[in-house]
Amino acid sequence: MNLREYMFKHRITQRSFAKRLGITHVYLSNITNKKYTPSVKLATRIEEVTKGEVSFVEAIKGNEPYVKN
Hints:
This protein is mostly helical and 69 residues long. It has one domain: Orthogonal Bundle (434 Repressor (Amino-terminal Domain)), CATH 1.10.260. It has helices spanning 3-9, 14-21, 25-32, 40-49, 56-61. Helix 2 packs across helix 3 (25-32). The longest helix is centred in the middle third of the chain and has 10 residues, at 40-49. It is globular.
């Protein structure tokens, strides 16, 4: 499950989730919109906060930019 799906499933706002992660909601928005990829430290924190529902790999891989064929 990616981060956007997790927040939707648990009805968590970007502001409240960003606060739990210790980042700004703007930075979280950029991550969920695939403008930025989270650091290793943040991806680990995402996995911890979501209790594994969003894995470290998904936090990083799920934010790879879309590639048009």
